[in-house]
Design goal:
Structural class: alpha+beta
Number of strands: 14
Bound molecules: zinc ion
Shape: globular
Distance between the termini: 39 Å
Order of helices and strands: EEEEEEEHEEHHEEEHEEHH
Strand content: 15-25%
Strand order of the largest sheet: 3-4-7-9-8-13-14-12-11-10
Largest sheet: 10 strands, antiparallel
């Protein structure tokens, strides 16, 4: 059973999960990804993953059979596990609880060779829509306080399987990074009675210099205090606290916007490894006035090293204005690989 332990000094929870140590990619000496001979995410290998939670099929094929275009399964090597109770308890001055949570894998396409960015926008919309479906389902579980959807693209970003996929982890506490955003946004709201994210959107639209692209409903830009070169945020332009409240009619526009942003990063930076994270409000309605869902895309172009670990400062060698100008001017064809 994985375990959650709380750092008594700064209050950050750590997951001690020995299950994951059993992965085939466990600390390879060469630093190279060891790929399994058969891909567990390819059609025909459904038995290599835990049973499917949900799949999109149009051909009437049965569960855990080929014929799907998108498939969600539990992670075979979960960081947190779904069965059990939290059992929070003190150990002397320390705090611990059982590693209860959900850890799922969203296999975005049946085609091994196609990345998310190259999928047709209708298929990207399906991926975004299934994120919403999983949020809706998991938020009914009272043990879960937060659900994070993320994607690791490329080995340097932490992907251990080549086949395009994203992941979801539901946690029994609100993670520290999210709590920092919530606290900051709440303080701003108490003082100004406005949403900080809405104000940032207004400011970016008036400055223009950090905008990567703008559509009717979405804005992609490089944040003013970007931690990393080409760090890119994507937000709905109207105030939407929770991702689940994003309508089906703007999902196709979101898919298109995401495809364009990822396409620019891929074309301009030679298909960099990246992390994609979706920050939405925690379960509950008290964040409604001041939190605003968004996507953060962080290309892995620099390494986080001693100074960053020691201080929490990041040294960014590229001005966000220069990164935005470069991406904005890049013309990328939207031609998709058919899947
Ligand atoms: Zn595959
Ligand atoms: Zn807002
Ligand atoms: Zn965020």
């Amino acid at each position: 059973m994985p375990e959650l332990r709380k750092d008594p000094i700064i209050g950050r929870w750590v997951i001690i999960s020995t299950e994951r140590g059993k992965r085939p990619t466990n600390y390879p000496a060469s630093g190279k990804m060891i790929l399994p001979k058969t891909c567990p995410f390819c059609p025909g290998n459904e038995s290599a993953t835990p049973p499917e939670i949900i799949a999109y099929r149009t051909d009437g094929s049965g569960r855990n059979q080929p014929g799907w275009s998108l498939r969600v399964v539990s992670n075979k090597y979960p960081a947190l596990i779904i069965e059990g109770s939290l059992n929070r308890e003190p150990i002397g001055i320390y705090d611990r609880m059982n590693g209860i949570g959900a850890h799922e894998v969203i296999i975005e396409t049946a085609d091994h060779a196609v990345d998310l960015v190259d999928m047709p926008k209708e298929k990207i919309k399906d991926v975004l829509w299934v994120f919403r479906e999983r949020f809706l389902d998991l938020q009914r579980d009272p043990r879960f306080k937060y659900i994070l959807i993320f994607k690791n693209h490329g080995e340097a970003a932490g992907a251990s399987v080549e086949h395009s996929h994203s992941q979801l982890i539901a946690t029994p506490i609100i993670p520290k990074r999210v709590a920092e955003e919530l606290t900051g946004a709440k303080k701003y709201h108490e003082y100004k009675e406005r949403c900080i994210f809405c104000d940032i959107i207004r400011q970016e639209l008036s400055d223009q210099s950090r905008i990567v692209l703008e559509t009717d409903s979405f804005l992609a830009f490089e944040p003013y205090a970007s931690r990393f070169p080409f760090e890119t945020w994507l937000l709905p332009k109207t105030h939407i606290t929770n991702y689940i409240d994003t309508d089906i009619d703007i999902h196709i526009e979101l898919a298109e916007t995401l495809k364009d942003v990822l396409g620019k990063l891929k074309a301009g930076l030679a298909d960099p490894p990246y992390n994609f994270i979706m920050h939405t409000a925690p379960v509950g309605s008290e964040y409604r006035d001041y939190y605003h869902w968004h996507i953060e895309i962080i290309p892995k172009l620099t390494r986080v090293a001693g100074f960053e670990w020691g201080t929490g400062f990041y040294i960014n060698p590229t001005r966000p204005e220069d990164a935005a100008a470069f991406l904005r001017d890049l013309k990328v064809s939207r031609k998709a690989v058919a899947v």
